[in-house]
Specification:
binds adenosine-5'-diphosphate-glucose, globular, alpha/beta, 24% helix, 11 helices, 422 residues, 27% strand
């Protein structure tokens, strides 16, 4: 059956979400979980942003390729993203590596993760595929990008944003002509070229690609047979299309204006402890740059059924209070002060404790008289009575992981090791 000519393009598209990378710069936060499964923003996990963007854009067919430490990611997607109905032509498949083509074969690169699942994508009967990374925080209407792709007749359309030139070493960097056609593409160049007229900035790939499926399918089959390829979009496929085909850039900033989603383009790779802490703490701003209260673009997630947050006086009459903070359900703030902090579901803070600029992941317990500043506390951690963090850099670094930016990451293993030595 041919798709109706006036149908939204998203109804003829699928989202293929790459969620196999480790994200090693998040250190111990990704010891037990893949980066896309890391918690963000009080209730959600990082991958919920890409999946919600796809859902809110009208896409109802999705696949998620997982690889590294996939258990909690798979469990999260099974619990939170299980509302797709095959009888309504909606699908969400979770595709762990080494389970389909050959049980010993991991996904070699990002393109290989798609290539190993060609038959699944075929079965969706779609015309367009949008490749997404599962590890970025942003809101974006992919319908606008799909429309540009179709209108320009591109072989590939690549989402891009402007970044400071010196930060562009971590990205695919492109040059474009006046019509946004990409004339050159360098994957993670040591000396990124600046934008003409704006030499301090570079045009970076967001790792978001729109293809006609027939085109990509053919390319993947050829790439699989190429012994010299690393089977990666950024290293192999995209540079080849830029050289021999028509690659177009889709500016995230323009997309934000057209969709009306954000006044200022907001995109974060929360790939380091500092960036992760900052993006979470930014949500406590009076007017945060990322609006998670916008009902028109909800960030969907698996949400536990929990009681409301509670703030209580302790038996000494000390007030439990939170100021300029986000406090999730099932938190109890008892006789303690929480400032400029973000508490995930089920956090408990006890009398005489204080938290300032703290990101506490689910089910953290802060015992009495603990004083915590500028830290990220992993899920389930029990902070012992009287622990002081964030006041003496040397002491912090002795027991915990202190980031370049001075943020302290606390895990239960670190606390247990400390308790054994004290
Ligand atoms: P990187 O940031 O280096 O560059 P990459 O490691 O290729 O990203 O991972 C992209 C996505 O694929 C991530 O979501 C990751 O989890 C996932 N992934 C990585 N290896 C995988 C595998 N073997 N199987 C399944 N999933 C996997 C890319 C582009 C750059 C671009 C940046 C933007 O190559 O050109 O600028 O993304 O962040």
């Amino acid at each position: 059956m041919q798709p109706r000519p006036n149908a939204r393009l998203s109804s003829q598209a699928m989202a293929f979400v790459l969620a196999g990378g480790r994200g090693s710069r998040l250190k111990e936060l990704t010891d037990r979980r893949a980066k896309p499964a890391v918690y963000f923003g009080g209730k959600t996990r990082i991958i919920d942003f890409a999946l919600s963007n796809a859902l809110n854009s009208g896409i109802r067919k999705m696949a998620i390729a997982t690889q590294y430490k996939a258990h909690s990611l798979i469990r999260h997607c099974q619990r939170g993203w299980n509302f797709f109905r095959a009888e309504r032509n909606e699908y969400l498949d979770i595709l762990p590596a080494s389970q389909r083509v050959d049980e010993t074969k991991w996904y070699l690169g990002t393109a290989d993760a798609v290539a190993q699942n060609i038959d699944i994508v075929d079965s969706y009967g779609i015309k367009y595929v949008i490749i997404l990374a599962g590890d970025h925080i942003y809101k974006m209407d992919y319908e606008i990008m799909l429309r540009q792709h179709v209108e320009t007749g591109a072989d590939v359309t690549i989402g891009c944003l402007t970044v400071p030139r010196m930060e562009a070493t971590a990205f695919g960097v492109m040059a474009v002509d006046a019509g946004m056609r990409i004339s050159s593409f360098l994957e993670k160049p040591a000396d990124p070229p600046g934008i003409p007229g704006d030499p301090d900035h570079a045009l970076a790939s967001m790792g978001i690609y729109v293809f006609d499926w027939a085109f990509l399918r053919d390319l993947l089959l050829r790439d699989m047979a190429d012994a010299n390829s690393s089977h990666d979009f950024g290293n192999d496929l995209i540079p080849a299309i830029v050289k021999g085909g028509k690659a177009m850039a889709h500016k995230f900033a323009d997309s934000c204006v057209k969709s009306g989603l954000e006044d200022e383009p907001y995109w974060r790779d929360v790939g380091t402890i500092d960036a992760f802490w900052q993006a979470n703490i930014d949500l406590t701003d009076f007017v945060p740059k990322l609006d998670i209260y916008d009902n028109s673009w909800p960030i969907w997630t698996y949400s536990e059924i929990v009681p409301p947050a509670k703030f209580i006086h302790d038996e000494d009459g000390r007030r439990g209070m939170a100021i300029s903070s986000l406090v999730s359900g099932d938190c109890i703030v008892s006789g303690s002060e929480v400032r400029n902090s973000l508490l995930f579901t089920g956090v408990r803070t006890h009398s005489y404790s204080s938290l300032e600029y703290v990101v506490a992941l689910p089910r953290v317990v802060v015992n009495r008289k603990a004083e915590l500043t500028n830290c990220v506390i992993d899920s389930g951690v029990v902070i012992p009575e009287g622990l002081v963090v964030g006041q003496d850099p040397e002491e912090d670094a002795k027991w915990f992981r202190r980031s370049e930016g001075g943020i302290v990451l606390i895990t239960q293993d670190m606390l247990d090791a400390r308790a054994r030595k004290l």
